[in-house]
Amino acid sequence: MKQIDRIILINVITTAIVSGVFNVFTGIHVKNLGFGEGIVGQVLSIGSVSIALGSMLNAYLSSKLGFKKTISLGLILMSIGILGVSFLTNPFLIKLFSGIMGIGYGFPFSSIGVLLIENSSEKERVRVFSKNFVSQSLGTVCASYGAGRLIKTFGKIFAVEKSIPLVYLFCAFLILFSFYPLNGLKDREIIKNKKSKDFFKGFKEVMSGQALKFVIYNTIIGFGAGLVIPFFSVYLKFSLNIDNEKVGIIMGLSQLGLVIGGLLVPYISKVLGRENTVVICQLLSIPFLISIAFPQGIFILGVSFLLRSTLMNLNQPLIQNISLETVDYENRALMSSVVSMSSNVTRAISMIIAGYLMENISYNFPYYLTVVLYLVGTAVFYKNFKVEKPLRGGADE
């Protein structure tokens, strides 16, 4: 198996479980235990901020131990975390193990982009990132649909509240399968990091210039996303009364949009340029986000999920590229972690706010705020990232 394929397989397994299963059904699981949207928001927000914490720990530890060992630690923590959330009913313990799950995921999450850059040449980089994005999106589609089907099947055999924990138990074993591709991964990064700058001095570069401007943009978009995206499944289940299987299908459709976007992005970016692609697609996604807030039937809802997801996430391979090129080679792992932190910490805060708004005002109100934040974030990006610059470093150096 090629190094790129090993890296992508690790990402597919971990991301599919987190994005396709854990993030989709944990809110429903917590509601099934009798808790309100406020607790749902807290559980999801702790998981999100913990991803940021795990990413920062990974930035430091990977410079000392290498990515292979830190990803191994992450996989173990993910398995422990998802098992705790599965079978514990105390809200404090659910939050604790959601945090452990998030910290664990932060290790592979913040490693993948750096590993892809270090194992690809500049000419093939957009294609490699698109392949990774399409693969993880397909994995997430299959995970969402498969989990929805299993939950429905288990619900007929066991008590309904036991069906999600049983699926999570299966996911814990699947996470451990990631050790197979990880075992053959060549840890090139630790060798190069022996000549790297001091870890903490790297913050000076990351928190200045274009890097800082990107972090600001990412923070705004992350805050807006946290108001609605983590609650999509709860919104479908408890506001629109859609069953678990259809929830899985609709959420899978949103991930199918990522696949379509990932396939199209190399061609669209050649025509429009990276920055224009990001701006145009984010703006075009907003009407479909509004449509989700005011559903006109399950078919229109599914189409809106598909198109919003395609447009808003089509630019993710480009965004990942742009963020890592704003810093020098030796600070890429740190930049990846700071980007993760800026997004996940703000998402964690906005999840708590969204849980309160949905429980006390309406499910629709957070969507209005998200639209405003997406517009502001897109304006910030357009103002600061008009000129393309080539990536520095990589396998061809």
How is this structure best described in words?
The chain crosses the membrane at residues 7-28, 40-61, 73-94, 100-117, 129-147, 167-185, 214-235, 247-268, 280-307, 365-382. GO terms for molecular function: transmembrane transporter activity. This protein has 17 helices and no strands. With 397 residues, it is mostly helical. It has one domain: MFS general substrate transporter like domains (Growth Hormone, Chain: A). 81% of the residues lie in helices and 0% in strands. Mean pLDDT is 79; it is low at 189-196 and 388-397.
Notable traits:
81% helix; disordered C terminus; 17 helices; Growth Hormone, Chain: A; mainly alpha; 397 residues
pLDDT < 50 stretches? 189-196, 388-397
- Please tell me how large the radius of gyration is: 20 Å
Strand content: under 5%
The number of helical elements comes to 17
Main CATH class: Mainly Alpha
Quaternary: single chain
User: Could you report the average pLDDT, rounded to the nearest whole number?
Assistant: 79
Number of strands: 0
- Please bin the fraction of helical residues: over 70%
Offer a concise description of the structure.
Helix content is 81%, strand content 0%.
Q: Any chance you could write out the topology, listing elements then pairs?
A:
Blueprint: H1 3-32, H2 37-65, H3 67-87, H4 91-118, H5 125-157, H6 160-176, H7 179-183, H8 189-192, H9 202-206, H10 209-228, H11 232-239, H12 244-272, H13 274-293, H14 298-313, H15 316-324, H16 332-360, H17 365-384
Helix pairs in contact: 1-2, 1-3, 1-4, 1-5, 1-6, 1-11, 2-3, 2-4, 2-16, 3-4, 3-6, 4-16, 5-6, 5-12, 5-15, 10-16, 10-17, 11-12, 12-13, 12-14, 13-14, 13-17
